[in-house]
Design brief:
The complex is a heterodimer of chains A (110) and B (113).
Chain A lengths: L2 E5 L2 E5 L4 E8 L3 E9 L5 E6 L6 E3 L2 E6 L4 E6 L8 E9 L4 E3 L3 E6 L1
Chain B lengths: L3 E4 L2 E4 L5 E7 L5 E8 L3 E10 L2 E4 L6 E3 L9 E3 L8 E8 L8 E2 L3 E5 L1
Parallel strand pairs in B: 2-11
Antiparallel strand pairs in B: 1-3, 3-8, 4-5, 4-9, 5-6, 7-8, 9-10, 9-11
Classes of the chains: A mainly beta (110), B mainly beta (113).
Chain lengths: 110, 113
């Protein structure tokens, strides 16, 4: 059965800290891995990763994929209270399904 | 307005009633999806559609019916609502390639009493 596992389930940090969120997966026909941010509303797209070892970066957020070890990490540096959200990892298979992990709840304290 | 919209945003219904959740997108995306989100489960795919008149089951389709007579609309019907269907429902759409991200609607919070 296809599955996506995220860790930790939740964490609390202080503003300015750096956090690393983890996503491991087991899917049959991997196509891409996506990260979304969800703040009490619809998930919003952050990154799509298809190739190992190539870092995607957007401001203080970055992500990388390891297709050999079947995992991805999402890094957030110099965290701000606005980074507080649920971060969702999803894996796209050939075909049309997105398989989501349960999410990591991040709370950034001022 | 352009984008993807859902209605209603909030709904309370009774066990056994039929309820339909609406989803409308203005991008002419070929693919549309319905997910439910429950604590501890993340987002789970209910049904998806590759084009008008083409639908397929996802991970948790039991108790739900979909149709897609027009590209822009993808309604989800709960034929006889149960308490276990209390959830937040998200509609999403994307273009033709699996390398395109999915865009999500604002969600419908459904409570079945």
């Amino acid at each position: 059965e296809d599955k996506v596992v995220q860790s930790p389930l939740s964490l609390v940090v202080h503003e300015g800290d750096t956090v690393t969120l983890n996503c491991s997966y087991e899917v049959t026909n991997f196509r891409s891995l996506l990260w979304y941010k969800q703040e009490k509303k619809a998930p919003t797209f952050l990154f799509m990763l298809t190739s190992s070892g190539i870092e995607k970066k957007s401001g203080r957020l970055s992500s990388i994929l390891d297709k050999k070890e079947l995992f991805s990490i999402l890094n957030i540096t110099a965290t701000q209270t606005g980074d507080s959200a649920v971060y969702l990892c999803a894996v796209s298979e050939y075909g049309n399904k997105l398989v989501f992990g349960a999410g990591t709840i991040l709370r950034v304290k001022s | 307005d352009a984008g993807i919209t859902q209605s209603p945003r909030y709904k309370i219904t009774e066990t056994g009633r039929q309820v339909t959740l609406m989803c409308h997108q203005t991008w002419s995306h070929s693919y549309m999806f319905w997910y439910r989100q429950d604590l501890g489960h993340g987002l789970r795919l209910i049904y998806y559609s590759a084009a008008a008149d083409i639908t397929d089951k996802g991970e948790v389709p039991d108790g739900y019916v979909v149709s897609r007579s027009k590209t822009e609309n993808f309604p989800l019907t709960l034929e006889s609502a149960t308490r276990s269907q209390t959830s937040v429902y998200f509609c999403a759409s994307r273009g033709g390639s699996t390398l395109y991200e999915q865009y999500f609607g604002p969600g419908t919070r459904l409570t079945v009493t």
